[in-house]
Amino acid sequence: MKNLKNALLLKQLYLLKQLGYRYTDAAICKGIEPDLSLPDTIDKLRTQALQCHLCELSKSRKNVVFGEGNPHAKIMFIGEAPGATEDSMGRPFVGRSGELLTKMIENVLLIERKETYIANIIKCRPPQNRVPTPEEAHTCQPFLLKQIELIKPRIIVTLGATAYHYMTGDETGITKVRGTIREQNGYTLIPTYHPSFLLRNPSAKKEVFEDLKKVKVLMEKLVQ
Ligand code: URA
User: Fold this and answer.
1) Separation of 112 CA from ligand 1 center, angstroms?
2) Which atom of ligand 1 lies at the shortest distance from residue 79's CA?
3) Could you tell me the fold of the domain covering 38-222?
4) pLDDT tens-digit readout, 33-57
């Protein structure tokens, strides 16, 4: 929340600068407490995210990639950031790694992609697909946390090191933590490799298969 607050404060200062202010007393910003509450429906949250200009990525993006799927999904997948195809289409995981993710969901979990919810740590594409900076990730985080609060998934699968790191605060390498089960904030979190890593290293698919089999067992327990 601190990052969102700072970003909103910075936005106010830019506005004052545009209006011709060169110096300002800190007192001018006091009392203009920014409204930090986020909407309580997924549609309103999407509308707000689509208008977001809280970080530099808003200048280079084509579309905000909010996330998509069943708003009551029991299982949620969280990736890193939109790539070029996602940026063009405004939808998560629709490029080559998205095709692989969809196959993993359908062939191992035996459910349709649309039954799940898919989102990313950040909602706008970083230039040249670089890893999001901590500032970008923390500024965007309230949107993702609110999505999780509204969707209330029982299982979250993080895809790759970045998603795991920002969802847990843990910096242990993905090779070490993949397939481990972690209970936090009312859901079970399982990290696995990112599909784009699998495209470059197909031999790691067997590990992801093992991880998703664990996810399937957890899903079956939910319906018992
Ligand atoms: N990689 C991600 O992490 N997310 C996407 O949406 C696409 C590719």
Assistant:
1) 18
2) 3
3) Uracil-DNA Glycosylase, subunit E (3.40.470)
4) 656 689 999 999 999 999 999 999 9
